Amino acid sequence: MNRILSKIQKRSLTFDFSKHIETASNPKTYDLDYLGYTNDHRFGCTEPFPFLTTETVDYIKKLTKNEQFLSKTKYSMPFAPCVLRNPAQNDDFLKAIIESPEVESHLSKIVGEEVAWHWNPWDASNINISEKVETDQLETQVFDWHIDSQPLTLVINISEFPDESKGEEKPQGGSTLIRRRNGEVLELPHPTPGYATLFRGCSVFHKATAANYRRQTYVKTLTFKDPSQMDCDDMLWAAEYSDKIGQSETYLHGRLDRFQKQFEYLKDNSGDKEKCERLLKTVDREMIVMRQFADSIFKMHAGEKYDLGFVGSSYKTQEEMEEALTGEGSRMF
Ligand SMILES: [Fe+2]
User: Fold this and answer.
1) Which pLDDT score, from 0 to 100, does residue 311 have?
2) Which of 16, 93, 235, 286 is the most exposed place for a label (fewest CB within 10 A)?
3) What's the 219 CA to ligand 1 centre distance in angstroms?
């Protein structure tokens, strides 16, 4: 027993904001106006910025090779052949990061609004692993343009980069691509491990490019602290492939907590008609997702045919993308 305990203690690291998070630089950001939403000056995306220190990246890289950890977290999905789901549930160091108010405050300064780690831990963090592709195959695509159901997405590179000093190839690919509504593409490359990109994943079409190294990304999502800001988090798609019961329970509890916060917001802002109307509009939109959850989750559990609704789509044409951003059921605001 003692041996097992000491093994676990050895594996874990105690999270220390000043040691494990890079805060020296303030990333350049683009607003939604720049990305195609005229006159909307809220946050759209960042340029890549250093986020995790070398010690943090090395620790997470080691975890991705730990068989015991992998046996609890690793799943294969058609759109993500190797994904470590809710890794924070199985590691105290990772859990400390997604519970850290200091990290939330650091990211809030970048976004320009108060943000919090996502209330659904299954969506608050995942590790995606894509196998290396040959340099002449970098156009290979795992997943096409899409938007996420969570408000904000943080993609952190935690790969083992090829070492040119050892005669290995120059690292290529592995970028996040962000699409402006006029069709132009912003390429956001991660020059070294530990770099991150943060963007409004529910409003900005994005995809990743293949890399000539084994690309590992730690993907985290965030929500806005203000509960009148829309959060259409949808877990149906991901639940198809991992722990349906655990995810359904956690999701429902998260949604109920959120409704409670929204009622409190109404009470606190009862004299402000504009705020009350904004909240009710948000609730209307979030109910579309909840009704889809109600219609599908029990059928999924029972092994019956179900409909995923708006989730799980990737898009190719400009028209399809525009419809997803502004049409019925869009999740943007
Ligand atoms: Fe995404």
Assistant:
1) 56
2) 16
3) 9
Spatial neighbors of 120 by CB under 8 A, at least 6 apart, are: 150, 233, 235, 250, 251, 254
CA dist 243 → 253, 297, 302 (Å): 16, 13, 14
97 Cα–ligand 1 center, Å: 20
Where does the pLDDT of residue 116 fall: very low under 50, low under 70, confident under 90, or very high at 90 and above?
very high
- pLDDT reported for residue 139: 74
C-alpha of residue 150 to centroid of ligand 1, in Å? 9
Q: Is residue 331 part of a domain?
A: no
Tally the domains of the chain.
1
What is the Å distance from ligand 1's center to 201 Cα? 6
CATH code, domain carrying 41 = 2.60.120.620
CA 221 to ligand 1 centroid distance, Å: 10
Residue 140 domain boundaries: 2-326
Examine the pLDDT at 141 and tell me if it is beyond 80. Answer: no
Domain membership flag for residue 129: yes
CA 99 to ligand 1 center in whole angstroms: 22
Please report where in the chains the tokens 């988090």 appear, as a residue.
Answer: 233
Contacts of 137 (CB under 8 A, 6+ apart): 210
Residue 314 inside a domain? The answer is yes
* Residue 9, pLDDT above cutoff 60: no
194, two tokens: 């530990």
pTM for the model stands at 0.92
How many whole angstroms from 269 Cα to the centroid of ligand 1? 33
Q: How far is the CA of 206 from the centre of ligand 1 (A)?
A: 6
Distance 122 CA to ligand 1 centre (A): 14
Q: Is-contact 190 215, C-beta < 8 A? A: no
The alpha helices in the chain, defined as continuous H runs, are: 2-11, 17-20, 32-35, 54-63, 67-73, 92-98, 101-111, 121-124, 236-239, 244-268, 273-302, 318-326
